[in-house]
Every structure is written in C-alpha cells, then in structure tokens.
Design brief:
7 strands, alpha+beta, globular, 135 residues
C-alpha cells in the first residue's frame, strides 16, 4: 500500500469531482480523517491517478472485447463500465459497457447523469477486459 499524504488526497478529491457523485466525495472526505484514514487517502489518490491515465474517446477503438474497462459504476443490479473518458476536459460523455439487467451493450454513457442519479463508483474495481464483463 502506498503512503500518500492527506494533502494529496484533498487535491485528488478535487480532481475526482467530474467522475464521483457529490455524496460519495463527501463521505470520502470524512473518511480520510477517520481511523482508517490512510487506506482512504491511498484509495482516493490511486483512483485519481487511474482516471488521469485512462484512455480518451476512440483510443481503444477496434479493440472489441480486448478493450479495458477502467471504471465501474453500480446501483442495484445495474452496472456501467467505462472504457474511455471524454477527450474534452469537461466530462460530457464517456464510452463503455452498460448492463441494466437486460444484457450488456456498448455505447456512450453520461457520467453527469450517473452522478446526478447517485450511481456509485466502485472504489474496489480492478480494470479488466470488456470481454470478461459481458454476461
């Protein structure tokens, strides 16, 4: 486990704002001061780094099932896996795999809509190939 500083996590929380619902950011901000603070500091900074490094729109074009999903959002039995973030600084849309319980489909996903509907980002998701996620 890394040993990032609280100041690193505070900056990462700001960077994560376009990707993480406000309620979840608020909870994480409180947890970095808690008993397990170092764990959450490391988690927040590592998620920020992952998002900074992930491909932008069209950078995995043509990879099909070999494309890697970097982020996972979930609610109930519904899942959204993000393979590419928006090429613009503002995150209007991303590309990925959505499964709303009726089978998985690739397409554009609005992270803003996910956030507005309090769809959680999975803090424990390990990037994996899309082919492994299809059911």
């Amino acid at each position: 486990m890394s040993n990032f500083k609280k100041s690193d996590a505070v900056q990462s929380l700001k960077n994560l704002k376009p990707f993480v619902p406000a309620f979840q950011l608020s909870i994480l901000a409180g947890l970095i001061d808690g008993e397990e603070g170092q764990y959450f500091i490391d988690t927040v900074v590592e998620l920020d780094y992952l998002i900074q490094q992930m491909p932008k729109t069209y950078e995995q074009d043509g990879k099909g099932d070999q494309a890697v999903a970097y982020l996972h959002y979930f609610m109930g039995g519904m899942d959204w896996y993000i393979t590419e973030k928006d090429m613009e600084d503002e995150q209007f849309q991303a590309f990925g795999l959505a499964n709303l319980g009726y089978g998985a489909e690739l397409g554009y996903i609005s992270i803003e809509e996910l956030k507005a509907n309090n769809i959680e980002i999975d803090l424990h998701f390990t990037p994996t190939m899309v082919g492994n996620l299809k059911k």
